[in-house]
Design goal:
39% of the residues lie in helices and 16% in strands. It has 178 residues and is α+β, with helices and mostly antiparallel strands. The longest helix is centred in the middle third of the chain and has 34 residues, at 80-113. The mean pLDDT is 91.
């Protein structure tokens, strides 16, 4: 699949088939994720794929943004001690979050190529999810991504014309129209 096709066809999926995603495929997604840019080359990310049904149900209970009973819940965490040591407070505060978002986008585009649907989620109870998944205190949960085979067609929200959001040289200065 061409990159721009994957970008244009990737939409947030909130309804999934009851079909297992092979572990080998999840490792391919993790590989795509770790190829993302990383602030100061921190690479402090960790990718926790939750496939156990009981744990998924518990995480789902504490994650109001999660829906569609995905067969896989990915929890992207950052190693805060590593970030602090290698990049200081700024890396810990902002770099890890930025890295996790870029890794998630790589993963979501790769998932699209493999016929999987995804949805990034930031609404969850971090304390509960941390306890359920036994995530150490020195790791911060950055975001959750639901993963699975899409059920039906996604609802695709309208986007503004690019001329309304892209400016040149001064904020609000639209590009030249020819």
């Amino acid at each position: 699949m061409e990159l721009l096709t994957a970008i244009n066809e990737r939409h947030s999926i909130r309804s999934f088939e009851e079909k297992k995603v092979p572990e080998e495929l999840l490792l391919k997604l993790a590989d795509a994720a770790q190829k993302a840019p990383s602030a100061s080359n921190l690479q402090a990310w960790r990718f926790l794929f939750v496939t156990d049904e009981e744990k998924r149900e518990k995480v789902d209970f504490f994650s109001p943004g999660l829906s569609g009973r995905p067969p896989v819940i990915l929890v992207i965490c950052s190693d805060m001690a590593k970030a602090l040591k290698r990049g200081g407070e700024n890396a810990k505060k902002y770099g890890c979050m930025m890295d996790a978002a870029m890794a998630a986008e790589n993963l979501m585009l790769a998932a699209r190529e493999y016929g999987l649907g995804t949805c990034a989620i930031k609404s969850y109870n971090e304390t509960a999810v941390r306890k359920i998944l036994e995530i150490p205190e020195d790791y911060r949960i950055e975001l959750i991504v639901s993963i699975g085979y899409p059920k039906g067609e996604p609802r695709c929200p309208a986007r503004p014309a690019v001329e309304e959001i892209a400016f040149f040289n001064s904020f609000g200065e639209a590009g030249r129209k020819e």
